[in-house]
Amino acid sequence: MQRRFIGLMLAAPFLAASMAVVLVTARLGAGVTVATIFAIFGFSWFMALLVAATGRLMPSAGVALAAASIGLAGLIAAGGGLASPLVVLALALPAEAFFVGGKRRAAGFGIIAALAAIALQFALMPLLPAAAPAAWHWLFPIAWALTLLPLARGLGQALASRETVQEQVRLEDIIDAVVLRMGQNGEVLEASSQSRAMLKLAPELLSGTGLFDRVHLADRVVYLSALADMREGAVLRRVELRMRLPKGDAADVGANHRPFLLELMRAGDDIVALLRVNDETVDLKEALDAARESAAGADVAKGRFLAAVSHELRTPLNAIIGFSDMLLNEIFGGFKDPRQKEYVELVRDSGQHLLAVVTSILDVSRIESGAYSAQPEPFRFVDAVEMCQSMMRIQAETKHIKLTTQIPVDAGEINADRRAVQQILINLTSNAIKFTPDGGAVSIGARRLGSRLHFWVSDTGIGIAEADLCNLGKPFMQIQNDYTRRFEGTGLGLSLVKGLVSLHDGTMSIESAPGEGTKVTISLPVDGPKGSAAKPTVLPLSQPRNEKEAGLGPLRKTA
User: Fold this and answer.
1) Cβ–Cβ < 8 Å for 504, 374
2) pTM for the complete prediction?
3) What is the DSSP letter of 349?
């Protein structure tokens, strides 16, 4: 539309100037003719530049139509009146108005301008000496007619696009979508009757800017970007957006924005759009909400179950261990058969092992639920190491494993939960002894760096493959290979260590390689966790998404 108008404003002055030279110069003189030519060129090119600069067509097109009506009246009067072939140019005004405006209303204004030109030429005829009509005057209407040839192709495309739109409208009962015909600027020209069923809106309510006004504010940028792409020549664009619907539907009360999928397609100079409910997004959102609720309920139920079972098991296990000790000490008499004492000793050992497992489960459950309350207190770190060494010495001597410590004098005191730190040392040392072959070595070391205390437990055991490092620290997870299958365990030891370390704002890193041993390093703040007391921390038993979330430092494979 704008291109046609600008083309007319650039080309029309040449035709008008040639007509002025032929019809006006001989009667009004060269000076008036030159002034008229300059006025025609200046006015026409100014209108073209104004439309190109502002992008607004209608004000300039109205002024140009009025000026063309006056100019045509003068040319008809100078060419001999209604008997002149120049009267045929009156048809140019409604035709060009329709091509530029693209609407019947614009053609109506052109007809009015043409009638005004014919009527006005009667008033101008006394002022302009009229020439006798001549056959060569037909050259000017023919020249204008030749300018219509390039429009024939565009007109054919427009008719084809209208047939396509009409075919789509006829298919609206089959397509489960609202069919929209839109202009280049995004204004809705037509909307199918499906809008009554899908949007609870009459089609006319979407006309003009009705569709844009109902797009959610957060989605308007994406919608306008898609329209801009279509104007620049894109063939297809898909946009996910939310539409504001009436609140009459009970399902939409309180949340009257629903997700829709808008597909924009080019159809000649217009845009055809299909607006359909985005059921996939709605279903995924509902499924995600249901999964979150289910997962939250499962976590709560799991925590309660573990806590309840652990508490219920501890009482009978304590009784079993206590009575076993009484029998082993032969308080109520000796055993008649040595095998009886051996069996009672097995019962006691099994009970102690099961009690340790139950205690670990209870501790992990309490840490996960945030109910584990740490009690920081200052104590000498070397005391905790000595206690761990005394407890693990018998286990190490049984496998002829050399258990050593390397604690410097400057290790000093640490403000932490003493029982938690001892539990960390015992679990790491016990794992190291368990997975170290007979005759190996296990070492406990420490050093103080600034405001943090780093301590580690290293061994010369079987080591861990790089692919298995990511599974360390998961509850009830053990690394499976030909060696570890020979040992019992629940996989809770390292998980409990990870939870206790995180509870103290610490970090844990593991260095290991198959056949080269393992070194687990813990770093804790010397002054204790943030705040005057350790705060309960909720730690998921599920697999962490990354090492940082898991509370693990770098998991490295040594050379």
Assistant:
1) yes
2) 0.42
3) H
CA 227 to chain centre: 21
Structure tokens at 415: 């403000």
Question: How many C-beta atoms surround the C-beta of residue 262 within 10 A?
Answer: 24
CA 81 – CA 113 distance, rounded (Å): 17
Using CA atoms, how far residue 121 sits from 144, 195, 524, in Å, is 20, 52, 101
Dist. CA 362–CA 475, nearest whole Å: 12
Displacement of CA 191 from its chain's centroid (Å): 30
For residue 66, what pLDDT band results from cuts at 50, 70 and 90? confident
Closest C-alpha among 505, 539, 535 to residue 523: 505
Ranking 203-217, 370-384, 443-457 by mean pLDDT, the lowest is 370-384
**Per residue in 537-549, is it b (16+ CB within 10 Å) or e — as a string?**
bebebeebeebee
CA distance 62 to 44: 13
Nearest residue to 147 via CA among 89, 101, 108: 89
Task: Give dist(CA 123, CA 170) in Å, integer.
Answer: 53
3-class SS at 419? helix
Any idea which of 130-134, 228-232, 453-457, 528-532 has the lowest mean pLDDT?
A: 130-134
Q: How far apart are CA 84 and CA 54, in angstroms?
A: 39
Give the rounded distance of the alpha carbon of 407 from its chain centre.
Answer: 51
Residue 455 has pLDDT above 90, yes or no: yes
* Average pLDDT, integer, range 473-488: 51
- 130 phi and psi angles, rounded to 5 deg: -85, 140
Residue 60 dihedral angles phi and psi, to the nearest 5°: -65, -40
Per-residue pLDDT at 156 exceeds 70: no
